[in-house]
Structure formats: structure tokens, C-alpha cells
Amino acid sequence: MNDPIRESMLKKSKAAKRETFGKTISFLAIAVIVAVVAAIFYFVASKGISTFTQNGVNFWDFLTGSTWNPGSKGADGKPLVGALPMILGSFFVTILAAIIATPFAIAAAIFMTEVAGKKGTKILQPVIELLVGIPSVVYGFIGLSVVVPFVRSIFGGTGFGILAGTFVLFVMILPTVTSMTVDSLRSVPRHYREASYALAATRWQTIYKVILRSAMPGILTAIVFGMARAFGEALAVQMVIGNAFTVPNSLTTPASTLTSVLTMGMGNSVMGTLSNNALWSLALILLMMSLIFNLVIRWIGNKGGNTK
Amino acid sequence: MAEKRLTQNIQKLDENKHEIALSTKDLHVSYGDHEAIHGVDLQFERYKITALIGASGSGKSTYLRALNRMHDNIANTSVTGEIYYRDLDINRDNIDVYEMHKHIGMVFQRPNPFSKSIYDNITFALKRHGLRNKKQLDEIVETSLKQAALWDQVKDDLHKSALALSGGQQQRLCIARAIAMKPDILLLDEPASALDPISASKVEETLMELKKHYTIVIVTHNMQQAARISDRTAFFHLGNAIEYDETRKIFTRPKVKLTEDYVSGHFG
Amino acid sequence: MSPKRVDKIATGVIYAMAVIIVMILVALLAYILINGLPHVSWSFIVSPSRVFEAGGGIAAQLFNSFYLLVLSMIISIPLSILAGIFLSEYAPKNKLTDFVRTAIEILSSLPSVVVGLFGFLVFVIQFKIGFSIISGALSLTLFNLPLLTRNVEESLQSIHFTQREAGYALGLSRWETVTRVIIPEALPSLITGIILGAGRVFGEAAALIYTAGQSSPALNFSNWNPLYINSPLNPFRPAETLAVHIWKINGEGIIPDLNAVSTASSAILILAVLIFNLIARSWGRRLYKRLTGAN
Amino acid sequence: MKKKILGLLTLMATMLIATGCQIKGEVMNVVGSSALQPLVESAGESFSKIHPDLYVNVQGGGTGTGLAQVQGGAVDIGNSDLYAEEKSGIDASQLTDNRVAVVGITPIINPDLKVSNLTLQQLSDIFSGKITNWKDVGGQDLPITVINRAQGSGTRVVFESAVFKNGEKAIKAQEQDSSGMVRQIVATTPGTISYSSYSYINDSVKTPAVDGVVLSHDTVVDNSWKIWAYEHMYIRKDMQKERVHEFLNFILSDDVQDNIVNKMGYIAIKDMKVEKTLDGQVKSIE
Questions:
Q1: Which has the closest alpha carbon to C189: D196, B82, A137, A125?
Q2: Per-residue pLDDT tens over the stretch B65-91
Q3: Torsions phi, psi of D122, nearest 5?
Q4: Mean pLDDT per 10-residue run, chain D (286 residues)?
């Protein structure tokens, strides 16, 4: 008995070949990305670690020291590479910017998806996307000519500092956080809303108890991305934060961030010297810190997901 | 697990008298450590409608989806046992699933037309499978839409988005899409459950019409529907096929107490 | 307080915050445009920049920005779509996949100057490509990939699973279903992601300083043979983009009309992003309509 | 549509390979000090006019980058604000120094300050943090805000070596990595003081006299203005390319020195009446 259908099922079909092809090339693409990520991590890590292995800096001293002057040595003959001021500075601006930006981003996202409907989206969406396209240099200059004098006139001092940095970063990360929050609100299935309204819940109750809750993992991701952007932002912050290597003791005195020191120092130091390695160590810390942020947020997201 | 094997009454069809289109032997489905189907043996006769009934969670849908290996792509799910189609055990790695799907079609509980035009919904897969002839495609679109009793309503809007159709129309489009492939067997997973009564009865009419050319296995939780349209009925309970017989027997003189309770509405 | 009242107050607060955002944004844009537009003229757009005299333009920089954008998008869009498909459709749900996702996310938080230096040491020095558009495009790709990949994965995930089942049940491979059904349906959100990515590329300076360079040869706009060093199309020539130009003249520029050039360049940059945005959106809408039959 | 994209990609790829193989025209790479970049760029443009097949590619990136890359042979010329000997990690013996210009560096203060003269000692006290209020140097009662250039910046090294004669240490202060930024901040922030090379000075900031001397071309050439340094273009000792030597000679030619160097606010090397050695000794030239 010769059954063509039977025979055809025993052969590899065109679709199966296409599937293999698709799987293979998409795997190759992710492999390329993973390889690149690995290369960059390796690159940063190997350079960053050599501060401790080659130049003999104590890792703990590096984290907790408060004097940054890689060119010279301290009284004990050890290089002066204390990264504490920058680590604190980065932490402060990132967290403060995220704290301010999050409610605004969520409000804007709710406005666009739940309250004002299509019209709200039509107004806000293009403006938000446009903002992403403004180069950080331009943000920096506006910060310098608007935000810094503003902070100075209200709080005194020079105006440079964490507060000015926070304001600039707030505006810079707002589009990222907002557009990602919008996406996650949109992905909440419509019947959740319908079910809630059917139970005579008000709009706010629906938003607060149903939509925001089920979109929470997405919103958290949006915040991480915002923080990641804030964390990695260099040029704009560098222009308004003042770049003083002192442990920040107020929001309006000059401080510094990991990125600002990194950007400023790279061109002025020679590859392979301590001053240069120390900068790579800062980059390494930057990586580690974003890893930690990431894990924390993931943990929160998982917890939120379980209790739902 | 305690109730793994319950009293059963499974009709065994005589292969000399009945042409068997599809059958399973000791079919098990597990999600991770949890076994959802505990070994089901059923035979489906050609050009007949077989209904699978049972309470929610009885495993009828899981079983149906195992028949054409829809579980393949789901992580942690394993299907063991044998599924016979054209003398082949299609639950084996050497079977090309994509080719098999051309002959064993499926319609899902929720209408899931592609976000494409009505015309493209029907022709998309055909084109991908190599059919390029425009005239032939047009013909198939017309016949399958007619078979699905949708042609008169959409013939002027073939290039409009399928998502603009009503739920019932979408489901009939999905049926048209499935039969456009000219499959041997059509598996339907509660095709009318998401629809209003009028649309549901239209779908039923469609199925009665289709059985002339197709072997149909349909999961339904609507007993009237099963009684109206099917030739044979299998009753599922907790992952087991409890009773399988001609539909009128199941609904009038069931042999197993559980079946009787179910069809008389004592539970479920 | 009754739920109704809370609802009213909450709606009011949301409106107020949305208005504040719009105000901030409008003020920003107005600030840039009002300061910059008076200095913009046709000759500013089409004439070459000058090193230390007044009256220079931004012709080469503007062209470079677009060329670099196109090149880096040609590299990063296919790569990120493929990678996003893998993560969304094929990746097994296990620790390794999670690890890869985390790694990609962390990469996106690297300051662009680190990516730039990596690009400098790898593309410019190691591969001996030199300061060039292609080095810059590759570096920007590194910088953009994480976000784009993530966006693709999420856009694909937002399309309901039943669409994939439908394709599978019709004997289609997941690959065909994804590339021909899911991606067209996800197009609007994919395009949003691409526009955001393009905006980043357009405005990026730090990653380009060490890769595409901060100066460019005087372009000969009548020679479109990419084999010549002064041809605009030569991807191996160094190229200063508009954002880098703004950064450079503000940092080390000695031209007397620095302020005018800088504000005008910012205004043009914003307008270019706006125009790019509009074009990408309308093109995307048309493509979406064609692919999905939506009206 | 897929095919079109694929075709386009193939075309691009071929184009890239083709171009990679054979670029028409010679390229000379000059990398380093961003302060020196505009000067070399203009000179490069003029040089290319004489040699149309040559393209002088001038990039910034900083003194450290320039020296490291020229030492590693990745570029032809490394621009530097400093002597190679002053930069750690550089083996100066492998490099040939070409001093192409002199740059005068001056303190700059906020224009609202009522101070028009400072002594070197006062500068030293201000930048080391001993004097913290303008009233101590004859100005109004206003705290002093010091803005430094980034650590390792050529301008800062030159300024500090001229001002800190007795091993004083700079106070922890704000730092900025470019002259333009420093100028803008000093122009707009009350009570600020910083320093900048002469080429970046404009009306937005005030330049006080130091020990009664005002910075100008003439005060630098005879060393009556003390804070100045050379701009260097380093090449490797084993540099073979004829064009590179030719280009360096071109920059030192009278034409470039008069018309580009002096016009940009640098001081032509040939105008100098004194010479400063690496260790800061100044002697007059005949």
C-alpha cells in the first residue's frame, strides 16, 4: 500500500527545514550578542581587576577610601584611589532621579492608557519619543544654563551638585520609564478592566488594584531601565554635578559620579597605568552595581508575582 | 492518583466494519510531575463526529490537543503512548509534525484569526506550503468559506481585516481556514463555547455539513450540543476516558454510574 | 472618603502630573528651538564647518549623523530582531536564559564612554578600521542592541500565544508564524522601540568620540563613489556627527560664534529627530496596514 | 520586501569589503590633545590643499590617548599638552618631540569680581585652599569657588607647576574636563576662579593680571608672563613616512606659524625669545 500522506509525514517537510533555519540563525544572533556582552565584561573586568592585582590596591580601601588622586601616593605610600565619593554620588543621583521620575512616569502612562485615551496618547507619545532624541550634551547645557542657576537661587551655594544632577536625570529618564510603563499597562488584558468595572469599581480602584498590580513586573522593569540609563549617563551629569571628589554631605554641594570621573579621566590617562586601571575599576563597579540593582528588582518582581 | 483507573466501559470498534481514522493506545499526558491523562484508548471512526465530554478539568481538551501533538512546544509537557493515523504511530520523533498538521487540523476554543485580511487568513498557510496559483487560491477561499457558512457575509470584504468580524464569524473563519487545508481529520476544542447561541448553532450546522468530508473530534461541555451533533461520545473524568459509546447510548442508557450522574446533571 | 471622591482626586492628580510633564517637555523644546532657530539658515545647513573662524555650517555633520544612523540600524535591527525572536520563541525557560537576559540588561547600563573605549580598542585599533563611520556604527550597535533586543522580545511576547498555535495547527513552523504573522502584528511597538533606539544613536556623543572621531574630511558632495576618502558614502572615513560637534565646540571650540552654532545645531538635531520620527511612524503605519489588512 | 533588504545588505557588505581593501588616497592619523586639535586640523586642511591625495585625520581624545597611541604605533602623530616625560606610562626615549606652539595660561575669574591683580603667591594660596574668601585678596566678601581642570589635564599640570612652587596640594574642588565648560561655569557662577589657555579667553570671563603682568603675546615671548608651556606633536623615532615629517615642517613654517598659530591665540614658536626646559629652567635664545 502506497499512501502519499503517510510517506510525506516520514520525510522532513519544508516547514521543518524552515524551523531549523530560523532556530539556527536566531540562535546565532543571540550567540553574537552574548559573545559581545562576554567580551565587554571580560574587557572591563580584566582591566578593572588589574588595579588590585598589578597595582596592589586593596579592594576594600578602594571601596571605602574617600580620596581620589591616582596620580599621587598617600602618606602610607599607597596610591590614593578611594572611590567612595563617586559610588555614593552615583547612588544618590540614580535613586533620587528614579524616585522622582517613577510617579510622573506612571501618571503619564495611566493618563495615556486609561484616562485620556487616544487623544492623550496622541499628545504625549510623540513628545516623549522626541525627548529621547535630545542628545545628552544638550540636556547638559540646558542643565548648566537653567537648572544650576535655579538651584543656586533657591538653595544658595554654586548650584552644582546632586540636586542639579537629579533634576537633569529625572527629565532624561522620564521618556524611557514612561514609554516602557505604557507598554506594560497596555499589555494588561482588557477583560481585567472589564471585570473590575463590572464589579462597580471606580476607575481609580480599577487602575490601582487591578491594572497597576498586574502590570507591576513591567513597571519595575521600566524603572530598572530608567535607573540603568541614569546610572550610565555621563555627559549631562558631568556638566551639572560639579565633579568634586568629596563624599557628598548635602544635595547642593558639588559631588561626582562614577561615570563623570570615568569620562573626564579616560582621555587624560595612559592605558596600562594605575590612573587608567583605576578608571576601569570604576567601570567594573558600575557593572557590579547595575547587576545588584537588577537582581534586587528581579527579586521584588518575583515576590510581587507570587503574591498576586 | 488514587483514582487512576476507574470502572470503564470503552466501546471497541471492529476494524473490519468501521474505518478507523485515528486511534490512541494507552495515551498519557504529564505536566512535569503531574499526570493529567492516565492512559486513554479511543478509536475515531471516519466521517463521523465524535464528542468528548466531561467536567472542567476532566482532561478532555488535554487529550484532544495531544492527538495532533499541540503539546510539543510546551515546556515540561510529555505525551507518551501511541497515536495511530494511517497505520503510523504519529507520536514519534520521526514524524514530521508540520506535515501531520496539514492532515489533522484544529480549531481552538477562542477564535484566533491572524491579524490579516480574511483572504490572507485562509491563503496564508496554503501559500507557505507552496500553492501559488491565484485562481486555485481564490477557489479554495470561496469553497472553504461556503463550507463554513461565511461566504455570503464576507464575500465583498475579503480584503478587510479578519479582526473586524464578530466572534462567531471569526470562529467560522477559523474553521474555514482549517478546512482550506483539506485535512483528513478536524479537531475542535470547544469551538462554540465563546459564542452566542445563534453563532453557536450556525457553527453546529457547519459541522453537520462538514462531516460528509471530514472526520471530526469535538470537545464540548455542552451536552445538548454533543447529543445533537455527534455519532459517538466519550465521557472523561479526572484524566480517564470512562465511557465511550454511541451517543444515544451514552445519553439514554449509560453503563457507568459516573456517566449517568454527569449526563443527568448531578455534577459538573 | 468615598471611593468616588478618591477617584476624582486621583484623576485630578494624574491630569496635573501629565500637564506638568507636558509643560516640562514643551519648555525644553521651546528653549532649544527659540534659542536655536534664529541662527538657522539654509546656508548654515549646507555649508561646511569651520575650525576657528565664524560663519561655519554643519553640512557634513548633519549628513554624517544620518549616515551613521542608517548604518548602525542596518546592523542592529536584524540582529536584535533575530535575538529577540530567539529569546521570546525558542529559548528554553531555564537559568541560563535568565542569565543571558540579565547580562544583556546590565550591558545597557554601561556608560556609553566605556562602550566607546571598547569600540576604540577593538574596532579602531585591533581591527585596524581606524576612526571611521563603520567603527562608530559598530560601537553604537553594541550600545543599542540590549535595548532593541529587549524591546523585540517584549513586543513579540505581547502578541497572544493563540496566534502561534493557529500557525502551528496549520502546519507552519514557528519561524514562519513569527516572521509573517507575529512580527507584522507587533510592528507598531517594534517601531516605537526602533525610534527610541534611533533617537539614542542620533544624540549619542560619548561613544562616538573615540570611534567615529571628532573631525571629518571636507566632504565632496558630488563624488558618491564610496571608494574615495572624501566621498560622503565612504564608511571608512572619520565622521563627526552633529551631537559630537555640539559637544566638541562647547568643550574645546574656539570659533567666535560658538553659541550660535551650538544652539542652532541643537535645534536642527531636534527637528531632524522629529522628522525622522514622523517618517518612520507613517511608513510603519502603512506597512502595518499592508501586512495586517487593518483599515 | 525581504529580498530587497537582503539584496541591500549584500550590496553594503560588498561595498564595505571593497572599500576596506582599497581606499583612494593616503591617510595620516593625528590623535591627542583636544586643545591642540583645532590648530592641527586647520594646518591639515591647508596641507591637504597642497597634497590633494592626502587626508590629515585629526582626532581629539586627550593627551594620554595621543601619547599612548603614538607610542603603540596606532597613529602617526600624537598631540600632547605635556612633555612625554611628564606622563606616566610613556617611554619618552622612543619618541621625538616637536614643539609646534606655545600656549599661555591665565587665571580666569567671574566678571563680577572686583579683583584685577593677583600675585603668584595668592594664586597658590587660593588653589591650595589657604585663602577661601575674595576679601582676603582685595575683592568683595564672597567665598571663593575653585574650578579645576580634570586630573592629568595638560592645562592643569602646567598651571599647577607654575603656581605651586613649594609642593602645595590642590584642594578638593570641582573639576571640569574641557576649557569651554570651565569658561562657561566661571562666566555664570559668582565667586568662581579657574584657569584656561589664552586661546579660549573671551569677554565672558575676567582675566586678572598676575604680579602686575597681563597675559599677551608679548609678555609670554620674553617670559614676563610665567605660566606658559609648549604644545607638542610627538612621532616615533622610527617614523618612516615622508609625509609626516613634511607635515611637521609645514606646521613650523612661517606661513602656518603667522597665519594659523598666532591667529588662534597660540604663540608662534619662532617668536619666542626664551626657551623653557623640561625641568622648568628658562633661558633666553639668541
A1: A125
A2: 999 999 887 878 899 999 999 988 999
A3: -60, -40
A4: 57 55 69 86 88 84 86 90 86 91 93 92 93 91 91 87 86 85 89 90 91 91 91 91 91 90 88 87 80
Chain B to chain C Cβ contacts (< 8 Å): 83
DSSP characters over C83-148: HHHIIIII--SSHHHHHHHHHHHHHTTS-HHHHHHHHIIIIIIIS---S-HHHHHHHHHHHHHHHH
- Separation of CA D5 from chain center: 47
CA dihedral C205, C211, C212, C218 (to 10 degrees): 120
What domains appear along chain C, each with residue ranges and CATH number? 40-292 (1.10.3720.10)
Q: Which of C51, C74, C229 sits opposite D24 (nearest CB)?
A: C229
Q: How far apart are CA C119 and CA C137, in angstroms?
A: 10
Please state, in angstroms and rounded to a whole number, the distance separating the CA atoms of residues A42 and A47. Answer: 8
pTM equals 0.85
Within a domain: B268: no
Report strand pairing: B185-189 vs B215-219: parallel
**In chain A, which segments carry CATH 1.10.3720.10?**
84-307
Which letter, b or e, does each residue of C69-80 get, where b requires 16 or more Cβ atoms within 10 Å of its Cβ? bebbbbbbbebb
Which residues, at least 6 apart from B161, have a Cβ–Cβ distance to it below 8 Å?
Answer: B115, B116, B117, B118, C292, C293, C294, C295
CA distance A135 to chain C (A): 4
Architecture of the domain delimited by A84-307: Orthogonal Bundle (1.10)
Q: Which of D69, D174, D178, D185 to mutate to test the interface with A (most CBs of A within 10 A)?
A: D174
Per-window interface: A 63-122 vs D, CB < 8 A = 69-71
User: What is the homologous superfamily of the domain D2-102+229-284 according to CATH?
Assistant: Periplasmic binding protein-like II (3.40.190.10)
Nearest chain C Cα to A145, which residue? Answer: C31
Which of A147, A268, A273 best tests the D interface by mutation, with the highest count of D CBs <10 A? A268
List, in order, residues 6 or more apart from B212 with CB less than 8 Å away.
Answer: B47
What are the residues facing D230 on neighbouring strands? D102
Contact of A276 with A270, CB cutoff 8 Å = yes
Chain A residue with the nearest C-alpha to that of C274: A130
- Interior CA angle at D220 toward D219 and D225, to 5°? 70
Measured between CA atoms, the residue of chain D closest to residue C134 is: D16
Q: pLDDT for C202-245, tens place per residue?
A: 888 888 888 888 877 777 777 777 777 677 888 888 888 998 88
Say if the Cβ atoms of A183 and C179 lie within 8 Å. no
C-alpha cell, A195: 471585570
Q: Could you report the per-residue pLDDT of D232-278, keeping only the tens digit for each? A: 999 999 888 888 999 999 999 998 898 888 888 899 998 999 988 88
Q: In the CATH scheme, what is the homologous superfamily, with its name and number, of domain D104-221?
A: Periplasmic binding protein-like II (3.40.190.10)
Does the residue B192 lie in any domain?
yes
The CA distance from C263 to A138, in Å, is 9
Most C CBs within 10 A among B108, B112, B118, hence the mutation to make, goes to B112
Residues B207/B229, Cβ–Cβ less than 8 Å: yes
Q: Are D57 and C213 an interchain contact pair (Cβ–Cβ within 8 Å)? A: yes
pLDDT of A224 over the 70 cut: yes
Residue D188 sits at the chain A interface (C-beta within 8 Å): yes
Chain D CB within 8 Å of residue C210 CB: yes
Q: Where are the domains of chain D?
A: 2-102+229-284, 104-221
- For chain B, the average pLDDT equals 89
Q: Do D19 and C234 touch (CB under 8 A)?
A: yes
Contacts of C194 in chain A (CB under 8 A): none
Option in B115, B129, B174 nearest C185 (CB): B115
CATH number at residue B164: 3.40.50.300
